Amino acid sequence: MRIGMVGTGYVGLVSGTCFAEFGHDVTCIDKDQGKISRLKDGEIPIYEPGLDELVEKQVRANRLTFSTDIKEAVKDKDAVFIAVGTPTRRSDGHADLQYVYAAAKEIAEAITDFTVIVTKSTVPVGTAREIERIVKETNPDADFGVCSNPEFLREGAAINDFMRPDRVVVGTECERAAEVMRNIYRPLYINETPMVITTPESSEIIKYASNAFLATKISFINEVANLCEATGANVQDVARGMGLDNRIGSKFLHAGPGYGGSCFPKDTLALTQTGQKFGAPQTIVETVVQVNSNRQKDMAKRIIEMCDGNVDGKKIGILGVSFKPNTDDVREAPSLVIIPELQAKGAKIAAFDPVAMEEAAKQLDNVIWAESSYDVAKDADIIVILTEWNEFRALNLDRIKGLMKKPRLLDLRNIYKLTEMESKGFVYQSIGRRSLDGENGSGNRLKSVG
């Protein structure tokens, strides 16, 4: 199949490259001449494990090309995917669809034979219908079908997610378009991947509802963690006991500083706005959004409390600034809330992240960007683990302790064992588990050991 992919951001580049791996002929299109030039030179503009090798392989096989000329690139394609950004509008919280609609108009002007126009971007319900209207208005003679095909890619595991998805969702009422989509995804049939063929409206809601539900699980377990701290229970044991129930499952039941990234914050907010627009308020999701916002600010307070209520002039070492490991994405990351909150109280911040420091430096001022975890620890009053990168799981704790001004560690990802930290002589606190001095994370004395 001949495929055009409009947009070479995270979704577009990963999807286009993986389609090429399926054996399709793919052209990735972007108006950013600099980005296209870098891609042609083999430079990958995003960090995703394994993507650089896969892009190189597909380019070498002549199945993947890059272009800035959308009219020439989408001509004679079987399907053209729209994978441009849909950022949150600051004015009202709705998804900004200007780039989606602009792409649809340009595609309409260029297509010749029957073409399926596919929204890969995350878009609110009703977008596919509007794209259909725009195409008809722009090119009344166009022979086309419109389809919604949301992505379900986890940053850091995107290639595997694309190649071995839980499901493929296709929203269309055009049987010709549905057949093209079946042919595009035919390589997945060998894995018996379920394909959900539904209406565009259902497909669009599936994406938002899925992300909102996962975000709900995260906020839920974070609130349970607060209860565990107040009662002496262990949130990891609670999560495991819950997760063994097949109706619940263990994924996304990991207490921490709150969710971030390019999807959950944007999509939960967009879903609540859609609910308000259609007179069907999404009250649970509205609460999830508020709980997560409060969570990140509460983590900053917890750091201050662990520093005896005052961080003015103190050096705070931060390990991890990306919203999750295996990505350089800092969009809506807890670090972007926590670090400024601490700086406002006079703290000096030193931070280290294996890959995300360059991106974080664009949004965070007056941070000392360290060369290693041990560089962060030098003369630190406290170390805070914000992101669970693998290299933070096996730190030389004796070395860390020797470098610090005071051996205090706040583990917001629960990657260390209480007994281990006790044996090393750290003042140690984590999330939803008792601290080593018999107090919970809020400083309240516990009557029993969890």
What does the largest sheet look like? 6 strands, parallel
Report the CATH superfamily of the largest domain: NAD(P)-binding Rossmann-like Domain
Structural class of the secondary structure composition?
alpha/beta
Strand order of the largest sheet: 3-2-1-4-5-6
- Which stretches of 5+ consecutive residues score pLDDT under 50? 438-450
Continuous helix count: 17
- The CATH architecture designation of the largest domain is 3-Layer(aba) Sandwich
Mean pLDDT: 93
Percentage of β-strand residues: 5-15%
CATH class of the largest domain: Alpha Beta
Looking at CATH, which topology of the largest domain would you report? Answer: Rossmann fold
Shape: elongated
Helix percent band = 40-55%
Radius of gyration: 24 Å
Distance between the termini: 58 Å
Please provide the count of β strands: 14
Q: What is the total number of structural domains? A: 2
Could you characterize what this model shows?
The chain is of the alpha/beta class and 450 residues long. The protein has 17 helices and 14 strands. A six-stranded parallel β-sheet has the order 3-2-1-4-5-6, with helices on both faces. Helix 11 packs antiparallel against helix 12 (283-306). It is elongated, with a radius of gyration of 24 Å. Residues 438-450 have low confidence and may be disordered.
